[in-house]
Amino acid sequence: MSQAKRAAVCGLMIAANVVIMVLGAAIGVGIYICPMLAGLLLLPIGNSMGKKYQLLCYVAISIISALLVPDPEAVLMFVGFMGWYPILRPRLQKLTKLLRCIVKLAMFNCIMIAIEALLMLVLVPEVEASWYLIVLLVLGNVIFLLYDQLIPKFLFLLQHYLGRVFKF
Fold first, then answer.
1. d(Cα 8, Cα 22) in Å, to the nearest integer?
2. How far apart, in Å, do the first and last CA atoms of the chain sit?
3. Residues 122, 127: Cα–Cα separation, whole Å
4. What is the pLDDT of residue 55?
5. What is the DSSP letter of 94?
6. Residue 38: closest CA among 87, 109, 3
7. What is the pTM of this model?
């Protein structure tokens, strides 16, 4: 693939991801779903063009989303975890199954607690911590484990349906 085609594909993926992130602010549940979807859409870039282009797209989406997306929680979810996790996931898959699960859940929990603490302390200081935050964290862990299982299935579908376009 020539440099011009790579730049065009990356530009289209960046634009599509930013549109998804902006739409996530319009839909209430989109705060969590849209960063996950945007992270999944970075997978074809990594598989067809390499990690360098995938990281470049992640950085561009993060910057543009920070400027255009009206919901800071969605942006922090993408920038803090959901955007770079699919990039890091192949390296984590090399660990043993138990260690991999522990590392993934520890990363997720530490980052989500930091994001929520930042939101509560800086952006919305009048919100008080309560028991439902623990319930949300537990549900977030379940959703993260499902997201982690979705990534290889999404890659399989991409290879099956878009394999000729992205040349996997």
1. 21
2. 12
3. 10
4. 93
5. T
6. 87
7. 0.85
